[in-house]
Amino acid sequence: MSGPWVVGVDIGGTNLVVGLLPLEGGAPLGLRSRATVPERGADAAVADIARMVGDSINEVVGLHGGSREDVLGVGIGCPGPLDLEGGIVIATPNLGWTDYPIRDRISKALGLPATLDNDANCATYGEWWQGAGQGAETLVGVTLGTGIGGGLILDGRIARGASGSAGEIGHTTIDLNGRRCACGNYGCLEAYASGPNIAARAREGIEAGYESVLSELVENNLESITAATVYEALVLGDEYAHEVMLETAKILGVGIANIVNTLNPEVVVVVGGVTRAGDHLFGPLRAEVRRRAFRSAVEACEIVPGDLPETAGVIGAAGIFIAEGLEG
Amino acid sequence: MSGPWVVGVDIGGTNLVVGLLPLEGGAPLGLRSRATVPERGADAAVADIARMVGDSINEVVGLHGGSREDVLGVGIGCPGPLDLEGGIVIATPNLGWTDYPIRDRISKALGLPATLDNDANCATYGEWWQGAGQGAETLVGVTLGTGIGGGLILDGRIARGASGSAGEIGHTTIDLNGRRCACGNYGCLEAYASGPNIAARAREGIEAGYESVLSELVENNLESITAATVYEALVLGDEYAHEVMLETAKILGVGIANIVNTLNPEVVVVVGGVTRAGDHLFGPLRAEVRRRAFRSAVEACEIVPGDLPETAGVIGAAGIFIAEGLEG
Questions:
Q1: What pLDDT is stored for residue B133 in this prediction?
Q2: Beta-bridge partners for A290
Q3: Could you say which of B90, B161, B266 has the minimum Cβ distance to residue A162?
Q4: Which of A14, A221, B35, B155 has the most Cβ atoms closer than 10 angstroms to its Cβ?
Q5: Is there a single domain that holds both residue B247 and residue B297?
Q6: Domain of A120?
Q7: pLDDT for res A91
Q8: B184 has pLDDT over 60
């Protein structure tokens, strides 16, 4: 079990997570997680990451033997848009950082070679390498969180497209005159089914007069409704929360049907907190895909929740370094 | 210029086209085209194709020397859904044939090995091999006709997906509560922007009271409006026809923006009669893509009309045989 290892770093809008992966795969070792606090700035996050990775390496080396020299590099996952070649965060709405050379800063802070990819590609790669999509030739990952992202595995490799931005499934249009999205467009999948937009839709319904235990759960402070509160209400048997989840599922079904008709994948892995809703989400979601996509494509495709809810990002970030960063 | 050659067969809802392609590419030789008349049945179409190919080979051999033995095989393009492995037309709404082993029947009739692929993949491959998309690593073809189809070239190869149905762009949803589509769904791209649906939208507007030279062009028999009549009216400066084309362009822009955000291609080639509208179509179409897709993806992507309006299907069908059928 003593090295070599690769560090995985998962920079999320909420948490920073780091861990060490053996080259041959397996559970991440020496996992560390802490709040991101993006408003402290990118330099502070890099310092946090360096400290966490240092602790993680010490722990792993202490437990398994080997030395710091057995750590070969670091794979980083970060919300985009990114300049992948330059290793730069161009602009990340959920972090507020712009034109920040995150890859080289982390590389320098750790004294290790580094790769950078977007968080959705990392989560997708993680689920494909060690999670719910193992062995698929064609796999699409859909990440549900503050935003909605996606990653594509085609012919056993991440497909990044001509400028590294393939997989932006959250910003495909499902209703051309629909809800305004944070990206400026109308009717994007994300405008309905991201965490904040699930919460917003729930709030709007209550403001329009729907009765729901949600009002109690947030002590009538409707602004504090989140996707998690909606899930909580659902578990309590709340009919309105059930309705909100049903609409979420249908809308995600429309977006995923588009993917299924476009790419005809073997597996669509859906990851993120909302997947805790289980069959409340996946039942109507799969039904909507069946209604909208071609039968042969539907029959060829499994739509499943991720297997690695906490660690897909770290595993995938390290996996991408192992697949692509060791070559250089 | 004497062989070897490969036959390309393009089975369309309107025309059958055949021709011979040199292995190294170039313009198709001995081109033959005739009306499909699908209601005479698939066997009659196979007999027509065999006759046309025979004539074509005689002409080419007569002009260029060589012999029938220099014809190595036949690539067939046909509207789907198809069972590609079995070489079978499962069900083709635009032809009315079901469960017909088209590949083996043509192979037997010609005494040549054959490959079958769907018409949109063939047109896409043709444009990529010899047309508007030469050299692109990632290219998407969008075929506008009686239906809307699509083909994907990823990493220099046709991507067919898990069950051979990748690229069904016409049946991606752009308006989840929108127009009913022939496929049974609501709000598919095809429900707005296929030839018959462009005509239907034009007709509906006139029925609702819009003034247009279209009424004159069809002598008030609105049922005989086609996409071609709309184009004719546009050329005559008709404002309403211009509006219909503008809406068509915007809707295609939404569908293509989804492709651009999902696949981040270098080139999107749009083929079919509607592309005759030129900048009337491509101007607002590109503007809508710019509005909806991520900037880096838009900047990396050319959206262009096909270069091979009559022959992309034949060239691509033969090209796919050359790329994949010669191996076996």
A1: 97
A2: none
A3: B266
A4: A14
A5: yes
A6: 5-126+310-325
A7: 83
A8: yes
Residues of A in contact with B291 (CB under 8 A): 185
- Looking at the structure, do residues A217 and A268 belong to the same domain, yes or no? yes
Q: Kindly report the three-state secondary structure assignment for every residue of chain A.
A: CCCCEEEEEEECCCEEEEEEEECCCCCCEEEEEEECCHHHCHHHHHHHHHHHHHHHHHHHHHHHCCCHHHEEEEEEEECCCEECCCCEEEEECCCCEEEECHHHHHHHHHCCCEEEEEHHHHHHHHHHHHCCCCCCCCEEEEEECCCEEEEEEECCEECCCCCCCCCCHHHCECECCCCECCCCCECECHHHHCHHHHHHHHHHHHHCCCCCCHHHHCCCCHHHCCHHHHHHHHHCCCHHHHHHHHHHHHHHHHHHHHHHHHHCCCEEEEECHHHHHCHHHHHHHHHHHHHHCCHHHHHCCEEEECCCCCCHHHHHHHHHHHHHHCCC
Tally of structural domains, chain B: 2
What is the per-residue burial (b if ≥16 Cβ within 10 Å, else e) of A289-301?
A: beebbbebbbebb
Angle value at C-alpha A280, between A278 and A284, nearest 5 degrees: 115
Mean pLDDT of the region A265-288: 96
User: Does the structure show a pLDDT above 80 at A199?
Assistant: yes
Q: What is the pLDDT of residues A141-195, one digit of tens each?
A: 999 998 899 999 998 899 999 999 999 999 999 999 999 998 899 999 999 999 9
CA–CA distance, A230 with A277 (Å, rounded to integer): 10
Task: Determine the Cα angle at B6 with ends A262 and B82, to 5°.
Answer: 30
Look at B262 and A169 and tell me if their CB atoms are within 8 Å: yes
Please tell me the predicted confidence (pLDDT) of residue A1. Answer: 60
Give ipTM to 2 decimals: 0.94
- A264–B155 CB contact, under 8 Å: no
At residue B1, the pLDDT reads 60
Res A327: pLDDT: 66
Is the omega angle on the peptide bond into residue A284 within 30 degrees of 0, that is, cis? no
Pairing of strands B5-11, B15-22: antiparallel
**Cα–Cα distance for residue pair B236/B219, rounded to 1 Å:** 16
A161 and A274 belong to one structural domain: yes
Residue whose tokens read 């369309």: B12
- Whether residue B46 is found in the same domain as residue B151: no
Residues in chain A within 8 Å Cβ distance of B301: 162
- Nearest beta carbon to residue A264 from set B90, B138, B161: B161
Q: Which residues contact residue B24 at a Cβ distance below 8 angstroms, ignoring those fewer than 6 apart?
A: none
Q: Are residues A147 and A24 in the same domain?
A: no
For residue B95, which of B165, B180, B10, B169 has the smallest C-alpha distance?
Answer: B10
Distances (CA, A) of A181 to A172, A285, B294: 11, 21, 13
For residues A140 and A285, state if they share a domain.
yes
CATH number of the domain residue B266 falls in: 3.30.420.40
Please answer yes or no on whether B164 and A259 come within 8 Å at the CB atom.
no
Instruction: For chain B, give percent helix, strand, coil, nearest 5.
Output: 45, 25, 30
| Cross-chain residue pair B81–A185, CB shorter than 8 Å | no
Same structural domain, A142 and A245? yes
CB contacts < 8 A, A to B, total 162
Convert the pLDDT of each residue in B233-260 to its tens digit. Answer: 999 999 999 999 999 999 999 999 999 9
Chain A interface mutation, best of B92, B121, B262, B290, highest count of A Cβ atoms under 10 Å: B262
B40: amino acid identity, one letter:
R
Given B155, B167, B173, which is nearest A174 (Cβ)?
Answer: B173
Q: Are residues A217 and A85 in the same domain?
A: no
Query: pLDDT confidence of A14, banded at 50, 70, 90?
Result: confident
